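Sequence in, structure out. Go.
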Amino acid sequence: MNLHIFKSVTELNENLIAYVVNIATKAIETKGRFDFVLTGGNSPKQLYKELATTYKDKIDWSKVYFFFGDERNVLPDHKDYNGLMAKENLFNLLQTPADHIFYMDTTLAPAEAAKAYKKALDVHFAGNEIVFDLILLGMGDDAHTASIFPHTDLVQNQTEDVAAVWVEKLDTFRISLTAPLINKAKNVAFITFGENKANALQHVIGDEEKDFANYPAQLIKPLDGKLDWFVDEQATVFLNL
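Output:
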């Protein structure tokens, strides 16, 4: 695990973009495409905008395929739909072809949406093992990542690649990649900033004794890939560095 600490979110984004560009370039050179899993929420908005504008010419976007780590159980035109955020801040600016974007179909029931997404992944990876080149993840102040929330079924799920999960605290379903699938990736990167994340970060990367039920982000440990954390100084105030 590599921990990268920056003085500001601007500096964090600049370095994370360089990291994304490097992985994308190598993947395209090696296998002819870059399989890139996006994270939702507010944290990556500026990152996506910068990738699609200032750094647009650094990647051959015609060879990039986009996926989502999780999705909220709202319709695709809802403001909270992760796919809509990515569309507005990344895809529209890049004019990404529709067949290069793998949205989670929330017009279906959650369990059916999960099954449909797994099927789409199987087709894209031609029935081979699903191994993404890069998965971006956020982390909530409760230490959830993707939609693997504390004390939910997804914490224990070792059998599925994509699953629906009921999140009691939010009174809603979510659809999410599971930890076992995430851990198959070649590269996983967390983007985490703000003092409100400091307590969770302390436990997730600082605790020797693991407590997955309370701190699900601890589950993320790539089997053969690399794990990088991109954080700002505010998020590290409780770490013993």
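Check: The CA atoms of residues 112 and 164 lie 8 Å apart. The longest helix spans residues 9-31.
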